[in-house]
Design goal:
121 residues; alpha+beta; GTP Cyclohydrolase I, domain 2; 4-stranded antiparallel beta sheet; 4 helices; 32% helix; elongated
Length: 121
């Protein structure tokens, strides 16, 4: 299987359980990997045989910067499901990691993240 990776995409959203998260919002980072067969795209140099990663970026941006979710688990599942539904004939599997670099948690840590994998990966 071949893979397309979109790494360290950055967005601003209003997801979370705490009032501060839904009022002030916060930064989110996302990593997305798509399992695709790039054989035909590689042979033809034709974008129509692969997935346009600019479209995937816009899709992720619209979801993360759109309707608020309480749980990033729900948000990351939404991203994965929409990608699979948008490219049913091209994307065989998807892995999505959503990172909260600054959650309102007291303590010392770099970040928290949630990751889901769907389909053939």
């Amino acid at each position: 299987m071949d893979y397309i990776h979109l790494k360290d995409m950055q967005f601003y959203g209003y997801h979370g359980v705490l009032a501060a998260e839904t009022t002030l919002g916060q930064r989110f980072r996302a990593n997305v990997s798509l399992a695709v067969d790039m054989t035909k795209a590689g042979e033809t140099d034709d974008l129509s045989y692969t997935v346009n990663y600019a479209e995937v970026y816009a899709l992720c941006r619209d979801i993360v910067e759109g309707e608020p979710f309480k749980l990033i688990e729900a948000l990351v599942v939404k991203i994965a499901n929409v990608i699979l539904a948008t490219y049913p004939d091209k994307v065989k599997g998807v892995r999505v990691e959503l990172i909260k670099p600054d959650p309102p948690i007291h303590g010392y840590y770099k970040e928290v993240s949630v990751e889901v994998t769907r389909g053939d990966f």
